[in-house]
Amino acid sequence: MVVFPETIITWLCLNCVSLLLFSTLIENGDEDKSLVVRSVKGDREAFGVLVEKYYKKIYNLAYRFVGDTEEANDLAQEIFTAAYQNLKKFRGDAKFSTWLFQIATNRGKNRFKYLKRRGYFINRSQADSDDDKDSTPRAIPDTSTNPETMLAGKQIQRLVQEAINELDPDHKEIVILRDIEGFSYDEIAQILNLPEGTTKSRLHRARMVVKDKLKKVLS
Amino acid sequence: MKDYHHITERFFELQSGELNDNHAAQLHLKSCPECSEEFKWYGFAVGAMNNLEEVSPPVNFLAQLEDRLFAPKPTLWDQFRDFFAVSPYMPLPVGVSALAVLLIVGSVVYHDSSLPGVVSSTPGLVASPVQPSAPTTMVNAPVQAISLGGPQQVASLGGRGVPNIADLIGADSFTVESPGVDQAIASLKQVLPGIKGRMIEENSNRMPGESVVGVVIPSAEYQRLTTTLINHGAVTTRSSQEILPSAKKDGDNVLLYIRFVHKR
Q1: Other CB atoms within 10 A of residue A184 CB
Q2: Which residues of A touch B62 (CB under 8 A)?
Q3: For residue A47, which of A86, A74, A73 has the smallest C-alpha distance?
Q4: A208 in contact with B at a CB cutoff of 8 Å?
Q5: β-pairing, B173-178 with B253-262?
Q6: B243: which of A71, B53, B109, B251 lies 20 to 30 Å off by Cα?
Q7: Integer Cα distance of A105 and A114 in angstroms
């Protein structure tokens, strides 16, 4: 009986796991592509599968762009409609998800600019602060000792969203993709067609802006 | 070791663990309360964004999307009915206002271009290639004119059974009132080649703000030119007949004098 040394067994196991992961990823991409092909041929069910797979993430992204559930709903629907109408233009060079998030980011950015031009976010934050006046006064947490404890609060969530709303569109899209949706720098570079260095420097500036706003409100 | 005076620009790398000189940065953070506080807030902001709750779409999201994608295409009537409800880009008041503006502009343009061939209502007489004018069109024209000639001129000038206003007034000479006399004359010069006419005389030394122009045009074009002049505010008056020489005909051509007067 042949006895394998422990290191060889570990190496084999790792290889098997990575092979499995790789094949899953490839399969995932291929599955999307075949669904796209079927959708282009008029198979509604195939497109339904794609929607089912991505709609929660797309809706969440839309919400982070506009900060309102109704607007987010409309925007997410618009994104899928645009994707459906442009499916023929999907050439398959990139992953379908990258292509879809490219559409989502462009539409989200445009909708955000549109709403901002019309003072939508100013009116909303005004309304929110009026609501706050009616409710009990906000307890300002002691951030100097333990800022992590504040993450759970709904108010913090709202304040973060407000801070994101005030970012300019180029910074906002990167913050949403990286810090909220958790895309890798590679994926962001593909979605936004930006070099990694630019992505990182913009992300840093955006984070600094959010940090300053949160600090101003909370400290 | 690098001198980290303030390391806010290094926060990104420090946060993501990409900083090469990490140890030095950490030392700086311990010794600089300002940077330490800022870095704490930086981490807090990043953590807060990472931990934002996922917002769930409404339960009928998929049904709504299916309707939007695969609902039967609206008919023309439906599109017209829904025209003003294309939310959020075109609220009802904007739609109604736009329609009102369209109607007003359309009506103005329609009245302005009721004479075929005349495309401008500017003080000048800018005209396109002149089309034969119909009698019915002329009835609506804003004419202030009095008859000077007899009915015998109708046949000779128009050569048609139904006379138009220019025929009826038997205009020998015209006075055109215009806020821009030079512009009006320039426009007339543009019109003349189109009707095979030519200017033979231009006299602007009579009175300040007044010019008299003599033109020769084919008899057949007489009505068109006079109608164009009338539609642009030309009047025939007895005084103008006294001041200006009468029109002359030599069979094929007509010599016509037009007086341009500055209108305030």
Answers
A1: 11
A2: 48, 51-52, 55
A3: A86
A4: yes
A5: parallel
A6: B251
A7: 14
ipTM: 0.74
A198 at B interface, C-beta within 8 A: no
Is the Cβ pair B54, A56 closer than 8 Å? yes
What DSSP string describes A132-165?
HHHSPPPPPP-TTT-GGGGGG-HHHHHHHHHHHH
B246 Cβ partners below 8 Å, 6+ apart?
B172, B173
Tokens 């004419």, residue? B143
Q: Choose among A73, A84, A150: nearest Cβ to B57.
A: A73
Distance separating alpha carbons of residues A95 and A84, to the nearest angstrom: 16
